[in-house]
Amino acid sequence: MSGRIADTFARLRRDREPGLVTYVTAGDPDLGRCADILAALDRAGADVLEVGVPFSDPLADGPVIQRATERALAAGGSLRATLTLVERMRPVVKAPIVIFSYANPVLRMGVTAFATRAAGAGVDGVLVLDLPVEESSELHQVLASSGLDTIFLLSPTTTDARIRRAAELGSGFLYGISRLGVTGARDRVATGAEEMVRRIRRHTALPIALGFGISRPEHVGEVSAYADAAVVGSALVALVAEASASPNLIDRVEAYVRELKGACVAPGTERP
Questions:
Q1: How far, CA to CA in Å, does 78 sit from each of 74, 112, 120, 180?
Q2: Mind giving me the DSSP string for 53-65?
Q3: Could you tell me the pTM of the whole model?
Q4: Of these residues, 47, 50, 124, 222, which one is catalytic?
Q5: What is the CATH number of the domain that holds 156?
Q6: CB within 8 A of 49, min separation 6: which ones?
Protein backbone atom coordinates (compact mmCIF):
# COMPACT_ATOMS: atom_id res chain seq x y z
CA MET A 1 0.00 0.00 0.00
CA SER A 2 0.98 3.67 -0.12
CA GLY A 3 4.02 4.33 2.02
CA ARG A 4 3.30 8.03 2.30
CA ILE A 5 -0.14 7.60 3.92
CA ALA A 6 1.03 4.88 6.30
CA ASP A 7 4.13 6.87 7.22
CA THR A 8 2.10 10.04 7.80
CA PHE A 9 -0.35 8.44 10.22
CA ALA A 10 2.45 6.50 11.94
CA ARG A 11 4.25 9.82 12.52
CA LEU A 12 1.10 11.47 13.81
CA ARG A 13 0.45 8.63 16.22
CA ARG A 14 4.05 8.54 17.37
CA ASP A 15 3.99 12.26 18.07
CA ARG A 16 0.46 12.12 19.52
CA GLU A 17 -0.50 14.77 16.99
CA PRO A 18 -3.94 14.76 15.36
CA GLY A 19 -3.86 15.23 11.61
CA LEU A 20 -5.44 17.68 9.21
CA VAL A 21 -6.83 16.54 5.86
CA THR A 22 -7.77 19.22 3.32
CA TYR A 23 -9.95 18.97 0.22
CA VAL A 24 -9.91 21.08 -2.94
CA THR A 25 -11.42 20.52 -6.37
CA ALA A 26 -8.84 20.03 -9.11
CA GLY A 27 -8.93 22.96 -11.52
CA ASP A 28 -10.68 25.41 -9.20
CA PRO A 29 -10.42 28.31 -9.81
CA ASP A 30 -8.18 27.18 -12.69
CA LEU A 31 -5.50 24.56 -13.13
CA GLY A 32 -2.58 26.96 -12.66
CA ARG A 33 -3.76 28.47 -9.40
CA CYS A 34 -4.96 25.09 -8.16
CA ALA A 35 -1.36 23.92 -8.41
CA ASP A 36 -0.30 26.90 -6.31
CA ILE A 37 -3.06 26.08 -3.78
CA LEU A 38 -1.80 22.51 -3.40
CA ALA A 39 1.69 23.80 -2.71
CA ALA A 40 0.28 26.26 -0.15
CA LEU A 41 -1.68 23.51 1.63
CA ASP A 42 1.50 21.48 1.92
CA ARG A 43 3.51 24.43 3.24
CA ALA A 44 0.79 25.21 5.77
CA GLY A 45 1.09 21.74 7.29
CA ALA A 46 -1.86 19.79 5.89
CA ASP A 47 -1.08 16.13 6.51
CA VAL A 48 -3.08 14.66 3.62
CA LEU A 49 -4.28 16.46 0.48
CA GLU A 50 -7.58 15.32 -1.00
CA VAL A 51 -7.96 16.35 -4.62
CA GLY A 52 -11.46 16.12 -6.07
CA VAL A 53 -12.06 15.17 -9.69
CA PRO A 54 -14.59 17.60 -11.22
CA PHE A 55 -17.68 15.71 -12.34
CA SER A 56 -20.95 16.89 -13.86
CA ASP A 57 -23.20 15.12 -11.32
CA PRO A 58 -21.61 15.45 -7.85
CA LEU A 59 -24.48 13.87 -5.93
CA ALA A 60 -22.72 13.71 -2.55
CA ASP A 61 -21.72 17.36 -2.60
CA GLY A 62 -23.49 20.48 -1.44
CA PRO A 63 -23.73 23.79 -3.33
CA VAL A 64 -20.21 25.02 -2.47
CA ILE A 65 -18.42 22.05 -4.02
CA GLN A 66 -20.97 21.79 -6.83
CA ARG A 67 -20.09 25.34 -7.87
CA ALA A 68 -16.38 24.53 -7.58
CA THR A 69 -16.90 21.57 -9.89
CA GLU A 70 -18.65 23.80 -12.41
CA ARG A 71 -15.78 26.29 -12.32
CA ALA A 72 -13.22 23.51 -12.69
CA LEU A 73 -15.00 21.91 -15.63
CA ALA A 74 -15.26 25.30 -17.33
CA ALA A 75 -11.50 25.75 -16.79
CA GLY A 76 -10.71 22.42 -18.48
CA GLY A 77 -10.79 20.14 -15.47
CA SER A 78 -11.22 16.38 -15.90
CA LEU A 79 -9.87 13.14 -14.49
CA ARG A 80 -6.93 13.24 -16.90
CA ALA A 81 -6.23 16.87 -16.07
CA THR A 82 -6.40 16.03 -12.35
CA LEU A 83 -3.81 13.30 -12.71
CA THR A 84 -1.58 15.60 -14.76
CA LEU A 85 -1.90 18.22 -12.01
CA VAL A 86 -0.86 15.68 -9.36
CA GLU A 87 2.05 14.54 -11.49
CA ARG A 88 3.20 18.15 -11.88
CA MET A 89 2.99 18.84 -8.14
CA ARG A 90 4.25 15.54 -6.76
CA PRO A 91 7.93 16.56 -6.77
CA VAL A 92 7.20 19.63 -4.62
CA VAL A 93 4.42 18.34 -2.35
CA LYS A 94 5.48 16.16 0.59
CA ALA A 95 2.02 15.23 1.86
CA PRO A 96 0.18 12.15 0.59
CA ILE A 97 -2.37 12.86 -2.13
CA VAL A 98 -5.75 11.14 -2.27
CA ILE A 99 -7.93 11.34 -5.37
CA PHE A 100 -11.65 11.83 -4.73
CA SER A 101 -13.80 10.78 -7.66
CA TYR A 102 -17.19 9.50 -8.59
CA ALA A 103 -17.23 6.12 -10.31
CA ASN A 104 -18.15 7.37 -13.78
CA PRO A 105 -14.83 9.08 -14.68
CA VAL A 106 -12.83 6.10 -13.38
CA LEU A 107 -14.93 3.55 -15.27
CA ARG A 108 -14.81 5.65 -18.42
CA MET A 109 -11.01 5.74 -18.30
CA GLY A 110 -10.90 2.05 -17.33
CA VAL A 111 -10.04 0.86 -13.85
CA THR A 112 -6.67 -0.63 -14.80
CA ALA A 113 -5.67 2.34 -16.94
CA PHE A 114 -6.69 4.70 -14.14
CA ALA A 115 -4.71 2.82 -11.50
CA THR A 116 -1.61 2.70 -13.66
CA ARG A 117 -1.84 6.40 -14.52
CA ALA A 118 -2.60 7.42 -10.93
CA ALA A 119 0.30 5.45 -9.51
CA GLY A 120 2.63 6.91 -12.13
CA ALA A 121 1.47 10.42 -11.27
CA GLY A 122 2.25 9.95 -7.59
CA VAL A 123 -1.26 9.46 -6.20
CA ASP A 124 -1.29 7.64 -2.86
CA GLY A 125 -4.92 6.70 -2.36
CA VAL A 126 -8.30 6.73 -4.06
CA LEU A 127 -11.81 7.27 -2.71
CA VAL A 128 -14.70 6.61 -5.10
CA LEU A 129 -17.65 8.28 -3.42
CA ASP A 130 -20.55 6.45 -5.02
CA LEU A 131 -19.10 2.94 -5.22
CA PRO A 132 -20.64 0.71 -2.51
CA VAL A 133 -18.21 -1.39 -0.52
CA GLU A 134 -20.09 -4.50 -1.67
CA GLU A 135 -19.15 -3.70 -5.29
CA SER A 136 -15.59 -2.51 -4.69
CA SER A 137 -13.57 -5.74 -4.66
CA GLU A 138 -12.38 -5.38 -8.26
CA LEU A 139 -11.36 -1.77 -7.78
CA HIS A 140 -9.57 -2.64 -4.56
CA GLN A 141 -7.60 -5.44 -6.22
CA VAL A 142 -6.55 -3.27 -9.15
CA LEU A 143 -5.58 -0.31 -6.94
CA ALA A 144 -3.68 -2.55 -4.52
CA SER A 145 -1.73 -4.10 -7.38
CA SER A 146 -0.57 -0.58 -8.27
CA GLY A 147 0.35 0.26 -4.67
CA LEU A 148 -2.62 2.56 -4.11
CA ASP A 149 -4.76 2.68 -0.98
CA THR A 150 -8.51 2.19 -1.29
CA ILE A 151 -10.31 4.53 1.11
CA PHE A 152 -13.96 4.15 2.09
CA LEU A 153 -16.61 6.52 3.40
CA LEU A 154 -18.52 5.47 6.53
CA SER A 155 -21.63 7.32 7.68
CA PRO A 156 -23.63 7.34 10.93
CA THR A 157 -26.02 4.79 9.40
CA THR A 158 -23.32 2.39 8.17
CA THR A 159 -23.92 -1.01 9.72
CA ASP A 160 -21.27 -2.83 11.75
CA ALA A 161 -21.08 -5.48 9.02
CA ARG A 162 -20.30 -2.85 6.37
CA ILE A 163 -17.75 -1.18 8.65
CA ARG A 164 -15.99 -4.52 9.02
CA ARG A 165 -16.01 -5.04 5.24
CA ALA A 166 -14.64 -1.55 4.61
CA ALA A 167 -11.92 -2.22 7.18
CA GLU A 168 -11.02 -5.49 5.48
CA LEU A 169 -10.76 -3.96 2.00
CA GLY A 170 -9.62 -0.48 2.96
CA SER A 171 -6.12 0.76 3.64
CA GLY A 172 -4.48 4.06 4.47
CA PHE A 173 -7.36 5.38 6.57
CA LEU A 174 -11.13 5.30 6.81
CA TYR A 175 -13.15 8.46 6.18
CA GLY A 176 -16.01 8.89 8.63
CA ILE A 177 -18.67 11.43 7.68
CA SER A 178 -20.08 13.07 10.75
CA ARG A 179 -23.60 13.67 9.48
CA LEU A 180 -26.06 12.49 6.87
CA GLY A 181 -26.60 14.58 3.74
CA VAL A 182 -24.27 16.37 1.38
CA THR A 183 -21.00 18.17 2.04
CA GLY A 184 -21.07 21.66 3.50
CA ALA A 185 -19.73 23.79 6.34
CA ARG A 186 -21.80 23.84 9.56
CA ASP A 187 -21.87 25.88 12.75
CA ARG A 188 -20.99 22.93 14.96
CA VAL A 189 -19.71 19.37 14.80
CA ALA A 190 -22.55 16.88 14.49
CA THR A 191 -23.97 15.37 17.63
CA GLY A 192 -22.98 11.71 17.73
CA ALA A 193 -19.76 12.16 15.76
CA GLU A 194 -17.59 10.97 18.65
CA GLU A 195 -19.72 7.87 19.21
CA MET A 196 -19.55 7.06 15.50
CA VAL A 197 -15.74 7.21 15.60
CA ARG A 198 -15.72 4.97 18.66
CA ARG A 199 -18.00 2.48 16.88
CA ILE A 200 -15.69 2.36 13.86
CA ARG A 201 -12.68 1.83 16.14
CA ARG A 202 -14.26 -1.32 17.53
CA HIS A 203 -13.80 -2.93 14.11
CA THR A 204 -10.45 -1.65 12.84
CA ALA A 205 -7.01 -0.37 13.73
CA LEU A 206 -6.92 1.86 10.64
CA PRO A 207 -6.71 5.60 11.27
CA ILE A 208 -10.04 7.43 11.14
CA ALA A 209 -10.43 10.85 9.55
CA LEU A 210 -13.68 12.69 10.29
CA GLY A 211 -15.25 15.13 7.86
CA PHE A 212 -18.45 16.83 6.64
CA GLY A 213 -19.30 20.08 8.39
CA ILE A 214 -15.88 20.86 9.89
CA SER A 215 -14.88 24.43 9.07
CA ARG A 216 -13.39 26.24 12.08
CA PRO A 217 -10.32 25.80 14.26
CA GLU A 218 -12.55 25.01 17.24
CA HIS A 219 -14.19 22.22 15.22
CA VAL A 220 -10.76 20.79 14.42
CA GLY A 221 -9.80 21.01 18.09
CA GLU A 222 -12.97 19.19 19.11
CA VAL A 223 -12.54 16.40 16.57
CA SER A 224 -8.87 16.03 17.51
CA ALA A 225 -9.97 14.66 20.87
CA TYR A 226 -11.25 11.41 19.37
CA ALA A 227 -10.39 11.08 15.65
CA ASP A 228 -6.97 10.62 14.06
CA ALA A 229 -7.57 13.52 11.67
CA ALA A 230 -10.11 16.21 10.84
CA VAL A 231 -11.16 16.81 7.24
CA VAL A 232 -11.91 20.34 6.02
CA GLY A 233 -13.38 20.67 2.55
CA SER A 234 -16.33 22.97 1.86
CA ALA A 235 -15.03 25.83 4.00
CA LEU A 236 -11.70 25.75 2.17
CA VAL A 237 -13.42 25.54 -1.21
CA ALA A 238 -15.62 28.51 -0.20
CA LEU A 239 -12.52 30.52 0.66
CA VAL A 240 -11.05 29.74 -2.76
CA ALA A 241 -14.27 30.96 -4.38
CA GLU A 242 -14.40 34.11 -2.26
CA ALA A 243 -10.77 35.05 -2.85
CA SER A 244 -10.39 33.80 -6.43
CA ALA A 245 -10.23 37.34 -7.83
CA SER A 246 -7.79 38.51 -5.16
CA PRO A 247 -4.02 38.65 -5.62
CA ASN A 248 -3.86 37.37 -2.04
CA LEU A 249 -5.68 34.09 -2.79
CA ILE A 250 -2.72 31.83 -2.05
CA ASP A 251 -1.71 33.75 1.09
CA ARG A 252 -5.26 33.57 2.44
CA VAL A 253 -5.50 29.83 1.80
CA GLU A 254 -2.17 29.21 3.49
CA ALA A 255 -3.06 31.35 6.51
CA TYR A 256 -6.41 29.61 6.94
CA VAL A 257 -4.87 26.15 6.82
CA ARG A 258 -2.10 27.13 9.23
CA GLU A 259 -4.79 28.25 11.66
CA LEU A 260 -6.64 24.96 11.27
CA LYS A 261 -3.44 22.95 11.70
CA GLY A 262 -2.64 24.95 14.83
CA ALA A 263 -5.85 23.60 16.36
CA CYS A 264 -4.72 19.98 15.91
CA VAL A 265 -3.74 19.33 19.50
CA ALA A 266 -3.68 15.95 21.24
CA PRO A 267 -6.06 15.50 24.19
CA GLY A 268 -4.50 16.80 27.39
CA THR A 269 -2.03 19.01 25.54
CA GLU A 270 -2.14 22.74 26.11
CA ARG A 271 -2.08 25.03 23.10
CA PRO A 272 0.96 27.28 22.94
A1: 10, 18, 17, 27
A2: PP-S--TT--HHH
A3: 0.93
A4: 50
A5: 3.20.20.70
A6: 21, 22, 24, 38, 41, 42, 93, 95, 96, 97, 98
In a domain, 183, yes or no: yes
Cα distance between residue 157 and residue 172, in whole Å: 22
- Catalytic residue selected from 61, 222, 228, 254: 61
Total domains in the chain come to: 1
61 given a catalytic annotation: yes
> Is 144 inside a domain boundary?
yes
Q: Judge whether 267 lies within some domain.
A: no
Query: What is the CA angle 179-183-184, rounded to 5?
Result: 100
Q: Look up the domain containing 144 and give its range.
A: 3-262
| 50 is an active site residue | yes
> What is the block-wise mean pLDDT of the chain (272 residues), using blocks of 10 residues?
88 95 97 97 98 89 89 96 98 98 96 98 96 94 97 91 95 83 48 85 95 86 91 94 96 97 72 41
